[in-house]
Amino acid sequence: MKYYIIAGEASGDLHGSHLIKELKLADPGADIRCWGGDKMQAAGGKVVKHIKDLAFMGFFEVLKHLGTILRNIEFCKKDILEYKPDVVILIDYPGFNFRLFKFLKQNHFRIFYYISPQLWAWKTSRVYKVQEYVERMFVIFPFEKAFYEKYNVAVDYVGHPLLDELKPEKNAAIVTDKTEKVIAILPGSRKQEISYLLPEYLKVIDSFPDYKFEVAGLSNIGSEFYQKLIGNARCTVVFDQTYKLLERSTAAIVTSGTATLETALHNVPEVISYKGSWISYYIAKSLIKNISYICIVNLICGKRVVEELIQADVNKERLIAEVKNILSLEGRETILQGYDFLRSKLGVGGASKRVATLMIGYLKSGK
Description:
The chain is built from 19 helices and 13 strands. α1 (10-26) packs across α19. 48% of the residues lie in helices and 17% in strands.
């Protein structure tokens, strides 16, 4: 069968790569064309648009790049029509993927959606578009299944793919004593958020002279971009080795996103931050009505496991205070207990194999 997969960010590239591997195992004749990154390409997908040209964050930033986004959408529509896939699989990335719904439906393409946008957090009314256009949702958090069932959307809960990537049963045994005194900085996967947050994170370095600071960098963003932000700060950038960095880290400063869950599953105490343009912040604040937290770790647990610093709270004084807390014995023990609870909520692994099997089953049955 022919599969067309669209992912627009680093996390989508990671999860899409595992999906591609499992689709090829379950369907040896699978022909996969995709929007993604190096990981999806290495897994065997033919990448026609790379994520480095796709990741725009925030309302103002999207508006600024609207021309590029609209051209990408038209290219995507034309490419799908020429390719004629048996199914289009959308991975998160709602600002782009939702714009394809009507076109895909009108041209009689089957639509599967893997990894739900956070409709349960904001712009909940968009669930009616999912209800109208998407044949089936495949969700990775337990509470998402109940959310979609409430709106009569066909949905499968498949578990979180990071459980396979990180093998948390091994990481759960990581002790708090590290041979290296390293504080990891995970500033995000998009240039805009890195530009807002990395300079703030760097301000804490001089307050912790006994620790090494290492920044998780992405090679597709480029070393020159990071170096301009870092200047003479006492830190190094480690490219495309985030998991290895976390394995040797004592603590971490992390930009809100998938990286917060990756850090938790590595058993590294963390402080979560998020900051964008003030226009984007105020618009988002007016729309987010249904949740108490922004960090996925806290959302899954239903309680505050890690501290969240948002917008104006992302400053030198607050960051220093929170890093001191997660380095303290009491602070670390509290967070690590929270991580144990997180793992119990996430359940077992096998998500990528499970979702590939379900998708192929639905395609072959015509349902």
